[in-house]
Structure formats: structure tokens, C-alpha cells
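So, is this right?
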Amino acid sequence: MAAETAGQQGRALIPIKGMHCASCAANIEKHLNAMPGVSGASVNFASSEASVEFESQSAGLCDVVRKIRSLGYETPTETAALDIKGISCASCVNRIETALNQAPGVVRAAVNFAQAQALVEYLPGAANAAELVNAVGRAGAYTASVADQTNAEQPPGARFEEEFRRSRSRLIFAAALTLPVFALGMGHMVGIHSFNRPWAHFAALVLSTPVLFWPGAPFFTGFWNSLKRRTADMNTLVAAGTASAYLYSAAATLAPPALARAGIEPQVYFETACMIITLILFGRMLEARAKGQTSDAIRRLMDLRPRTARVSRDGREMEIPADELREGDEFIVRPGESFPADGAVLDGRSAVDESMVTGESIPVDKQPGDMVTGATVNGAGLLRVRATRVGADTTLSRIIRLVREAQGSKAPAQRLADRVAGVFVPAVMLAALAAFAIWMLAGQGFLFSTMIFISVMIVACPCALGLATPTAIMVGTGRAAAMGILFRSSEALENARRLSAVVFDKTGTLTNGKPEVTDIRAAHGADELEVLLAAASAEQGSGHPIGEAIVRRAEQQSGSPVPAPEELQNLPGRGIIARARGARILAGNMRLMRENGVSFQELESDIAHLTGQGKTLALVARDGRALGVIAVADTLKPGAASAAASLRALGLKVIMLTGDSRATAETIAAQAGIEHVIAEVLPEDKSDEIRRLQEQGEIVAMVGDGINDAPALARADVGIAVGGGTDVAMEAASVILMRDDIGGVPQAIALSRATMSTIRQNLFWAFAYNTVGIPVAAGILYPVFHVTLHPMLAAAAMAFSSVSVVTNSLRLKTRKIDPGISVS
């Protein structure tokens, strides 16, 4: 397999899974050939590949893959995460993304400025990690390495801690030299005129030179590398601005007569150059600290994983590193310790705190046969556990991987900022040169015009634009993970805000998924417990779900096991005839009773009422006399009604979708407070119902847990799988609730709205800052108010803009997420 291009002129071979016959191949081929920019496509059913010829950039590999997937077929791809060094602003993001998306075999690439990381989806065999790393290097002065998404030894914020320490060291050095330079440069303003002498200027030159060429070295290195590749980024703006002030001041110090002969007043601005470097370093230090805090949720999860495991091997107990734990190993967890891996309890009883994974604060009781999750905390009991998932396969590792992928993906809201960032730096440089020329032509002189030029270059901040969306996404997805909600992509997080309708599957989602006894009606002369015990004694050992529900309820109420019947005759479609405790017991439907001459006339009204509610009835008779009626139904989950109420409070339409009869469906819906019911739908038709809602203009979320929900979950704008669901449902969904509680649905939507609100705030202030800051720096206020923006103030404003955006995103960590309040 090969891919010679990624959406430009050329050819690509794309593997396809899910074709069942030649008509599938013909269908895909027809749709691909109809795409703009595709000059030819042929699909080979035998090799399960599509050969696509591109004639222009109007179609790309990503578009083709998306088209194939929309037709219901799979295109196997792999995803690589790359840590990137050298990213200085949003312009770098645009440059690296372009290089990666043009690399052969790449389906799509997204670069996260806040994480300094790229997430690349590519066709295996057509591209590999090494080629992706090389593509990043060709984009500019950047270096890339493959990131380990699950390495607990390297927490996600570690590189930002290193960046923070490095920035702090440079800042301390810069500040120590900048203070005396500032005093020498500004002394005349407080009456120290001796500082405005050649010796003072020379001293300032000596002190400022190390500031520019050690703490400020990364700006100049980045500028030089960009210049060699004929590109521009944030380093270009800072380097050009500070170099202008420094070089002019050096000339004024070392050769003042030459400037005087050119008609330029020899003044020095060393303090300006030094303060710009110092203030920007201060801003970057705060920015690095704030970036590190955006991944606190993942770091806390990683910190919970124990470093060692106590295993039982060859009949003896030993302590080994948790990384060496193997599937099938038996390990022991003492009270208060964390589980080193996922596993099944073999021996012991305890309560386990699973809040770090599910967000549920109440400990869960565990006994032999129950499953435990790695990194959760054992309570007061000693447990012996067999490892079922270890290393990268554990639930914790999967959570970390999903959250990191979501944080690394690019939200649609970022597109406008990316388009602006792509042309931002060249536009700012042109604006600065234009401002310089205009003020020179206006007769304001070289010094005034130079200060204007420097201010425009320094005040401009593409960083705020680049940080506005990813920092909010990182904090929002991290906050969600702490609540037991996993967004698999930033697109899912954004789409959840736009929802207008939420569709719930009934069985196992709104309900518990297994029948329970709901009502007991006793005939004259009998009581409810008598009816229940008689039916249970007949049903014990029948294996029927309704019989098991009756036996469970009888054992709960009587407090003792129900003995097996002495004789048992199973009559399919009618019920059971048994001999238990010396009596002949009948348990079944009305047909069974009529065949045996038993009259239920006195209970007819109860039977009609319970049947009207859609419940399944077991009629019970003993020795030829009606004893009573037991109603069995799938019961509503405790939090279903409150979840539906919260969704309505958020302004959403709540719908129940089920294959059950309308009577049963409407009974459950009424209990949950759901007004809209779609009943008697075959499993394979659920996705069609979602499509119909979408065609009516609804933006739909589907909530389900079963295999038959997977197509509907994939079809919905947002698919939400509950934690008790199947792996198939989890894979099809874009949002996963780690606990079996649909109360997480309104929480997820409320959190999405809060996150998107934060993103809108960030983008507004980032655009507003540059929209106002650049004209003010260019001197737009000077003709009226005789006020200009000094380069030092411009540097402070630029540093503040990035820090303010990140800080605003961090507010999401403590913001109250109330599903009962609509957040717009």
C-alpha cells in the first residue's frame, strides 16, 4: 500500500474494511468519482483497496477517507502523537500542520499549541512515525519525537514544568541586569542627570548585551531559523523589535557623530530592549506554569497508580514493580492501598473507592467474582485479585489515552483563529513598517517613528489566539475526566453544546436491564408473601428471567433461600407446574390457568390494570385455587427521572427509543418524565430514527449501552455510551460515561456549554486585544491626545494577553457545573 500524495495531485491507495460484495465496491467507487478534485477512483473488492487519483487540492485524503466512512465502511488508520519543540506561537502551529497534512499517507493532522503536541492520523504502510518526525523538521526549526500517551513516568505537564524552570532562570538573570540598565536609562526622569552621560550609556551597553544574547537568545535563534526558511513567527516580532532598539542605542553610544551627521538625534533605549525581553520572559514563565496546570486531572490519575504490586507466585508472596505485572497474575491489595491493575476478585470482601475513575464518591462493595479497576483505592478489607488487564490495557491507561487524544484534537472553533494566525505575523510586520513610514512622512522624526515600529511589533500577540481554544479544551476534558465523563474528541465537546434533542435507549440505559417484581396482588384469603413464596418455590431452578426475579424478591423478603421444587414441569408459552411443599403449584399465564380450570375472576380488574401498564404477569395457583398475581417489569434506574428533568431545564427535547410495545414504553417514559416516545423499533432501525430526527432539524445525542445501539450511537451528532455498556457501544460513542448513571448526560452537556463559553470569551479577548492594541501602538491616539504606547508597556500588554487567556481557561477547574442552569 502506498500513498503518493495527501490531497494534492497524485495517487493514493486506501484500504477498506466492511465490503461484502462487488456491489459495495461499485457503490464506493461511484461516490468517490463524484467528488470534486478526484480525477479517477477504482475500488478493488478482492484486495479491499481503493485507488484514488487526485487532480487538485479541492479534494484531499481526509475528504476521501471521510466519504468512505460516511458510506458505512471502515478505513483502518493509525494515530501518532508527536511532542514538538520550538513552537513559539500560533503561526508555528499553522506551518507545522500544513507540512504534516501534505506528507504522503497523512489523513489529518492537528497541532495543539498549548500542549506543544501534534496528533496525526495516517494510513499504515503509506506513512510511519519517522516520516512524520521528518516532516515536522522540514517545516522549520522544530524537532519532534513520538510521545508516549500512557507513560506514567512522564506526566503530561512535566515538559511545562521544565519550561517553567528554564524561563525562571532566564528571567532572574535578565531582571538582575535589567534593573541597573533601567535605572541608568530612566535616572534623568528623577533628577539624576549624571546618568545621561557617555559613561552611563556605555555601562548600559555592557549590561544589556548579555540580556539580549542569553535570556533573549531563543528569540534571535528562532528569528534566524525562520529567516532562512523565509517564514515569520512570534520570534520574528520580538527579535526585530528588541534588535531595533538595541542596535540604534549601540550606534548612539559608540558612534554618536555618525548619527548626528545623518540628522538623527543620538539617544539610547537599552532599557527598552531589556525590559521587553524581561517582561516577555515573565509572561512565558507564567504561561508555562498555567499550561502545566491544564493537565492536573491526568496527573492526579497517574499519581494514584501504585509503583509496586504484591503478587503470589510459586506459592510465595513477593513485591514487584507494577510494570512487571502480567495478565493472570494473582496480587494482594491491603486496606488503603491502590490496585496496580484491573482484575477479578478471587478472595475477600471490601468497599472500594472508585471516585477517581467514575466520579462517584460512594464506595462500591466488592466480593469474589466482582471486577476492580486499577488505581482505585481499597477500603478496610484484604482482597486477592487476578489481573485481567495490565499496562497500557488497563482502564486507567485507556482513560489517559482517550483524554490526551481529546486534548490533542482540534475543535472546529479553532478554525477562525488558525486562519488569522496563518497570516498574522506578516500582516503585523507590514503594519509596523507602514506605521513607521507614515510617521516619518508626517515629520515626526526617526526616533518617534522607530518607537512606533517597535511598539507595533511587540504588542501584537498571536499566542493569545493560539491558546484560546486548546487551553479551554484541555481543562474542560480534564474536568470531565475527573467527573467520570470521557470526551473522545474536542469536536464531541463542542457538538454537545449545540444539541437540541437527547434520545435514550430504554433497556439497560433508562432501566436496570433486568426484570424485577413490581406488584403483588393476593386473592381473598392469601397474603402477598404467601403468593410470592409459592411462586418462587415453583420457579426455583427454572432459569427463566421472570422466575429468577420472583426468586430474588422472595429470598429478599423472607431472608432465607427458596428450596427447589420436588417436581417440575416446564410448559413453554404457558408457564410451570410444580410440586413444592406438598402442594401442586401453577405459575404462568391465563392460558395455563384455563387449561387447569382455575378461575381468576376476583382479580380481573388488577390483571387488566397491570397489563395496561405493560407489565408481564405471573398468575399463581395452589391446589386448584387462585392464589394471586405477580407483576414483573424492567424497573427505572434511580437517577433517570432527575436526569430527564435536568435535560429539560437545559432546554433540550428528551426522547425514549425502544423496541418494546407502546404500552410498556409509555409506562416507563411516564415514570421518567419523558414526553416523547418512539416505540416498537427494530434494533437495526434505530439509526434510521436518529436520521429522521436530524432531517427534522434536530441536533441529536443518542444515549445507549448495547451492541444494537452502536449504529445509532455512530449516526448521532453526539453518541453517549453509559459505563455499564458493551465495548462495541464504547467504540461507537464519542462520549463515554464511566459509571452506569445517566445523570452524567446533563453534566456532560452543561460542561460542554461552560467550556465553549470559555472559548468564546478567550477568542473575543484575543481578537479584541490585537484589534485595539495594534492601532494604539501604531499611534492612532497621538494626533488627538498626544499619547503613544511605549514599547515597554507594549511588552507588558503582550505578556498579559497570553497569561489572561490561559488563566481564564483554568477557571473551568473550579467553575460550578449545574445541569439545571443553561450555560450559553
Summary: Residues 1-8 have pLDDT under 50 and may be disordered. DSSP finds 30 helices and 29 strands in the chain.
